[in-house]
Amino acid sequence: MSPVLLSFFVLVYFSLLLGVAWLTGRRANNASFFIGNKSSNWMLVAFGMVGTTLSGITFISVPGAVGRDGFGYLQLVLGYVLGYLVVAAVLLPLYYRLRLTSIYHYLELRLGRRASQSGAAFFILSRTLGATARLYLVVNILQATLLDRLGLPFWFSSVLVLLMILLYTYQGGVKTIVWTDTLQTACMLLGLGVCVYFLLDKMDLSPLDSLRAMRAQGLTRIVTHAVDSPAYFWKQVLAGMFITIAMTGLDQEMMQKTISVKTLADAQKNLLSLALILVGVLALFLFLGGLLSLYAPLAGVAAVGDKLFPAVVLGHMPAAVQLVFFVALISALFPSADGAITALTSTVCIDLLGFQRRADLSEARQRRWRQRVHLGFAALFLLLLMVFKWIDSPSMIGLILKLAGYTYGPLLGLFAFGLLSRRALRQRWVPLAALAGPLLCGLIERYQEQLFGNYRLGLELLIINGLLVLAGLFLISRPGPEPHDARQVNTALSF
């Protein structure tokens, strides 16, 4: 398919997104931007969050990794399900009882201002790096397959994509994103289904026959029994559980959409429905990866990893399937950045600039500051896209999970301390305790051979990081009377 025709369909798709943004953001205010006026439909939120959770990383990297790791990713998926159960049972009731807009306000109520600022800072760092890494993967593929043929340089393509995202999130925020994410998730899953159908048709296989062929080539292996391996079963399950607790339950972007639902019961239904849908969708992505690995040698495709899926589609599928692939790819691109920019803006405005504490800021002044912060994050995303272009990692999903292990660990430690203890913190030492965990993890990972011999650390670094921060917080804590806000939080927890 010609790049001009593909570009036309991309513009049509984006025009549809702008139409949805205009309809949902016409009378939006700050409450609409931050929490959707607490009126979001839980079914829409659950379905739309599939696109946010998966993003372009899953769309490209998970199928591409099957040739190397088989279906081992399902070990993590089992952990994800356990993590969603913990978030729904423990964290969501707390957020609703305290009527939070930013979940890091809990840290301020329970542990003090420094804890809230530290949590918000690590979320900003983690979500900024993670979202731009996801965004880079998809922009880079669009660049190589389409935009280079139009003569557009990478920096211009990045500016164009970020401008599109700003246009439909600038006013409506969460209220708009709930609807646009639903549309984009539907398009992404449509692309997944179409590609699976055409690969089965190309190889003249039924789903059961294809699974037998995958099994014969060792592609369906799931469980890793070697304790020394980073992919060891129990390490993956525990890591998956804590990744979900950290990257969903302690993540402002994911929780901002969830707590935009009116009631706790509906928010819990939203999260559990999301878990069930994700299991099926991720299994289908792995199945697609197995089909790609079967088809590649038959078609003489030498590409592997993140490059395999695009190479097969663009080189061996009809124009209509290529069009569906591009729409699905773009649908995977936008949720990785639109919700992130909105959540980062919310965290800065509420936790760092103190919108909820400052009576001197009118609705109009808050809107102006919010829009400036929103534009600032778009500029930061552009800068980081250039950095990731320079790094050019061959497997972005591994890089993102590595970043999460270092940057979400302090959030795990801070929330665990607040939930598991009734002690107070010496405020000036809180940022240092939060920083100590990632720094010590870096040293442990660097010298793991000397420390552990043949044992290799994997995703359990996130758990180790959280435990180190938790230990550091206990070292700087003291018994004593709790402030009024902390008593309010403990009362909420006792229900």
Salient structural properties:
495 residues; two-stranded antiparallel ribbon; single chain; 22 helices; 77% helix
Walkthrough of the structure:
The protein is mainly alpha-helical and 495 residues long. Helix content is 77%, strand content 1%. The protein is built from 22 helices and two strands. It has helices spanning 3-25, 30-35, 42-69, 73-97, 105-111, 113-147, 154-169, 174-203, 207-216, 233-249, 252-258, 264-299, 308-316, 319-333, 335-352, 363-391, 396-407, 409-420, 430-446, 448-452, 461-475, 484-493, and strands spanning 424-425, 477-478. A two-stranded antiparallel sheet has the order 1-2. 50% of the residues are buried.
E-strand count: 2
Mean pLDDT, as a whole number?
A: 81
Our Rg estimate from Cα atoms comes to: 22 Å
Global structural class: mainly alpha
Q: In angstroms, what separates the terminal alpha carbons? A: 60 Å
By DSSP (H or I, 4+ residues per run), the number of helices equals 22
Order of helices and strands: HHHHHHHHHHHHHHHHHHEHHHEH
Biggest sheet statistics: 2 strands, antiparallel
Helix content: over 70%
- Which residues form runs of ≥5 with pLDDT under 50? none
Estimate what percentage of residues fall within beta strands: under 5%
Short description:
The protein is mainly alpha-helical and 495 residues long.
